[in-house]
Amino acid sequence: MDNINYLLFICVAVPIFLMLFVLEKKSKITVGYMLIGIFVCLFISEVNGLMLQAFNNDIYYVTTTITPITEEIIKALPVLYFAFLFSDKRETLISLSIATGIGFAILENLMIFVANVDNISLFWAAVRGFSSGLMHGLCTAAVGIGLSFVHKKRKLFYCGTFALLTVAITYHAIYNTLIQSDYQYVGAFLPIATYVPVLLVVYGKQLTRKVNYETGAKR
C-alpha cells in the first residue's frame, strides 16, 4: 500500500483522536467508532490491494464482487463486538454503526481523491459525498439495527447475523455495479432514496417519545 494512505490516515485520525479526550461519554463512543471506521478503511485498503493483484487488477470485478464482501464483514466486526460486550440497545447500535460506515467513507474518499486528483469532477465529489458515504453508513447500520433484534435470540443469532451481512453485501455490490454502469445516476440516487425513509422513521420515533414524555409529565 502506498505511503500516501498512511499519511492521509494520520492527518484525519490524529485530530479526531485528540478530540476524544474532551467529549462526553456518549459523544466519545460515537466519535470513537468513527475513528474505528477510519482505521478499518486503512486496513481494508491493503486487503483490497492484495485482491486486485490476485485478480490481475480487474477493478470492475473486484469492486463489484470481492470488496463488498471484505468491507462489510470487517466494518461489522466492531459493531458485533460492542453488541456482545456492552449493549444491544437499538439507538446506540444505529449511531455506532453509522459512525463506523461514515468514518470508513471519509478516508476512502480521500484516498480515491488523491489517487485521481487530475480527473475529479463536481459530479464525482457529489457522488462520493452524498452517495458513497451514505451507502457505507447504511450498510453498516443495517447490521447494527438487525443485531438489536437477534443478539439475545440464540436460534436466530447465527442465521440472522449471516442474513444481515448478506443484505449489506448485496446492497453494496448493487451500488458499486450501478455506479460503474450506464445507470450511474440511479446508483448515485439509491443511497439517498434509502436514507430518507430511514431518517423519517428515526425522527418519527423520536417525536413519539418526546410527545409521550411530555404527556406523562403533565399528568
**What does the main sheet amount to?**
none
Radius of gyration using CA atoms only = 18 Å
How much β-strand is present in the residues?
Answer: under 5%
Low-confidence stretches: none
Report the helical percentage: over 70%
Structural class: mainly alpha
The oligomerization state is single chain
Instruction: Give the overall form.
Output: globular
What is the strand tally?
A: 0
Q: Give, in order, the helices and strands.
A: HHHHHHH
| Distance N to C terminus | 62 Å
| Continuous helix count | 7
Mean pLDDT: 87
Structure explained in plain terms:
The chain is mostly helical. 87% of the residues lie in helices and 0% in strands. The chain is built from 7 helices and no strands. Helix 1 runs antiparallel to helix 2, helix 2 runs antiparallel to helix 3 and helix 3 packs antiparallel against helix 4. It is globular. The termini are far apart.
List keywords for this structure.
219 residues, mainly alpha, 0% strand
Q: What's this entry about, in short?
A:
The chain has helices spanning 3-19, 25-54, 59-85, 90-115, 122-150, 154-179, 184-218. It has 219 residues and is mostly helical.
Q: Topology, pairings included?
A:
Blueprint: H1 3-19, H2 25-54, H3 59-85, H4 90-115, H5 122-150, H6 154-179, H7 184-218
